[in-house]
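Data card: per-record layout.
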Amino acid sequence: MAHLAELTGRWGLLPVALPLAWLVVTRLGQLGFADAPALERIVGGATLAVAVFVTGLLGLGAAHALRAGAILTALAVIAAVLVAVRPRSRRPYAAAWRGAVSGASAGPLLVCAAATVVVVTAASWLPVWQWDALGYHLPFVDFVLQSASLDGVPRDVGYLSTYPHNVELCFLAFRSMLPDDRVVELAHLPFGVLGAVATAALARRGGARADDGVIAGASWLTVPAVFLQLPTNYIDVACAALLLVAIYWVLATPTPRSIACAGLALGLYMGSKPNAPMATALLFALLAWRAVRAGRGKWVAVAGLSTFALGAESYVDNLVRHGNPIWPITLPMWPLRVGPDVWTLPGTTPMRALLEAGAAAPRAHGPLPWRVLASWTSLGGPPAFDMRLGGFGLIVLAALAVAAVRVVRERAWAHAIAGMAAVASPDPSVARYVLAFPAL
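The structure for this 440-residue chain is written out next.
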């Protein structure tokens, strides 16, 4: 299998694997969401597909079989099984585009297409050089592939062994299809597409026309901080996409299907980045409240089990090994802290040192509210993959004012809580930590 990947050049087995993955997404959407609108079928199919991919990769890792041949074979088997199952409805996905392309949406779509070309070119031809990608995202991928299991990850290297790894597992599957690292950074782009689709679906549910939904999704991809992250093996766009998918299901009319999907999406998100538990807790509380009010309280337990199964492994492991689910960070549990070292989780690195680490990009200083105001309103921050100052742009700021007025006028408190979850981060002044927020 490795020789075949080499023969196909820099793209390896991706021309086979990516269509199979897309087939899995679309078939799961048809099978599980036959009565839903086209955009919801895509979001639903992607939710189930990513959950299946992550679970399958963990299973292959436990069997010491995380190799290209086994991964591609498993993907082909899943796709074949789904094709063999007859869906209740054959509503075409082309319906998602009806009314989506208009004079109003043509311009944003062209800009988005041009941005995508730039992203693909940068990811295909520039070497891997970004800070976190080289530091621990790709090393995790390489250690696992070299040993064909998760046992190959050094337990004494903090960021490799303690971070949740749902996104890196997907990067791992992508990398296994390649002969080398030349185009590995394209692994982030499918998550960007997922985030754009989730943004469009949220807009449609909020009453937007089809073309306005497309404009919303395309515009999110061109937000400076999102665009600059796409051609990298950072995980921030992927985490934002999974968070948007979770918000989509949490804000849906509570049904057994939407509640179960919300649990899956929240688990996928929580198992992707160590700051995710804050947003996960907020959104799960909102989900439980809405479900109980709708008489679907028993499904909250199903969602909770799904969230725990897909998202809690690294936190439980860290808690057992180090007494801190977010180790190696010294974490004051404010506002519960009532004295020195009381309610402080142990670690080897202070939270402030972590937030100030990374690329030497300009950043805001001072108290948190001032940093957020200074960074979000900055239009002159130098562009960088790890933007610490600015990154949202003028359009997002204008839309934020309109959204705030609409939330208050319509008393859309559930949407307000979703917005709070999107900025639930140790430092929301850093744009890449809150990339889901512009989509809302």
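Known properties of this structure: Residues 335-339 have pLDDT under 50 and may be disordered. The CA atoms of residues 239 and 295 lie 31 Å apart.

See the next section for split statistics.
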